[in-house]
Amino acid sequence: MSDKKVISVNDRIPSLKEQRKQRANRRLLFFLGIFFVLLVLMIYFQSPLSNIKEIQVNGNVVADEEEIIEASELSIGDSIWNLHKELSVTQMEELKEVASAELSRKLPNKVEIQITEYPRVGYVKQQDGYYPMLESGAILDALPEGDIPSDAPVIIAEEEMVKLERLAAELGEISDQIKERISEILFIPTEEDPLALRLYMNDGLIVQTSVNNFSEWMTPYPSVAKEVDRSKHGILHMKMSPYFEDLNYQEEEEIEE
Fold first, then answer.
1. Could you tell me the fold of the domain covering 51-117?
2. What are 50-86's pLDDT values in tens digits?
3. Residue 156: beta bridge partners?
4. Are strands 54-58 and 110-117 parallel, antiparallel or unpaired?
5. pLDDT higher at 55 or 28
6. Can you give the residue ranges of the POTRA domain (predicted)?
7. Is pLDDT at 2 greater than 60 in this prediction?
8. What is the Cβ-side half-sphere exposure of residue 166, based on CA atoms within 13 angstroms?
9. CB–CB of 156/125 below 8 Å?
């Protein structure tokens, strides 16, 4: 005969009722939770709590913060959920200093603008001062009187302003290591090459090259410069096949003739 205890249906009914009650309570709490969340969201969306309270601009060094916010067409008090992101970004990127812009919401009521600016690749020397030139070719306002550029080459352009945009793009392609070795850039147009350049380097060498293929031709400069005999006076031609032109040797030949 089996020793298992037999539990009658009547004994099990209270336990089943308790389980059903617990499940009903859990469902009720679940639906109450959803209702509460929806209620909070509805209040948030319909109240001033969802209006923009702060516009934060990050990443700008040259570009003016007020100009960026004005270009974005964002205003304190606007709904944070009524942003025209694509239009705002497009208009901010039309600013000459701005390479790219991103716009994001930071709940509950903050908007963040992340700016990436075009780097400075040179300073255009004019009679009234030095004008920073960006990689895009844009020219900014002159440096304060007395400020001397130290982080990028000085460019002497005179009548060559229309060619600066091409030079700016090329300067943006070369490494900082090479850019830092350039002291001055002078346009010396010739009949053969209207875009010819003369570069005065911080290591004492004079380089002749061209706006065309500038970044490609200047890339091997560090290794080529090591091979130049510094006791000789001449010009290092950085083109497809770099070579050093010894001016002392040419002068001696002219004297002999």
1. Ubiquitin-like (UB roll) (3.10.20)
2. 789 999 999 999 899 999 999 999 999 888 888 889 9
3. 186
4. parallel
5. 55
6. 50-118
7. no
8. 15
9. yes
The continuous run of DSSP H or E covering 84 comes out as none
Task: Please determine, looking at this structure, whether the domain spanning 120-256 carries the CATH number 3.40.50.10960.
Answer: yes
Alpha helices (H) along the chain: 9-46, 65-72, 85-92, 164-171, 176-179, 214-218, 221-226, 247-256
Residue 98 one-letter amino acid? V
**Beta-carbon contacts of residue 209 (< 8 Å; ≥ 6 apart):** 196, 197, 199, 217, 218, 237, 238, 239
- Asked whether the bond before 108 is cis by omega within 30 degrees of 0, the reply is yes
- Token reading at 174: 């070369």
> Which of 114, 76, 122 minimizes the C-alpha distance to 93?
114
pTM for this predicted structure: 0.73
Question: Are 51-117 and 120-256 the same fold in CATH?
Answer: no
DSSP string, 157-185: -TT-GGGHHHHHHHHTTS-HHHHTTEEEE
Phi, psi for 52 (deg, rounded to 5): -65, 125
What are the residue ranges spanned by the domains of the chain? 11-39, 51-117, 120-256
Q: What is the rounded distance in angstroms from the CA atom of residue 179 to the CA atom of residue 152?
A: 7
Kindly state the average pLDDT of the residues 133-137: 92
Q: How many residues does the chain have?
A: 257
Determine the Cα–Cα distance for residues 152 and 174; give it in Å rounded to an integer. 12
Rounded to a whole number of angstroms, the distance between the first and last alpha carbons of the chain is: 135
- The amino acid that residue 73 corresponds to is E
| 238, amino acid identity | M
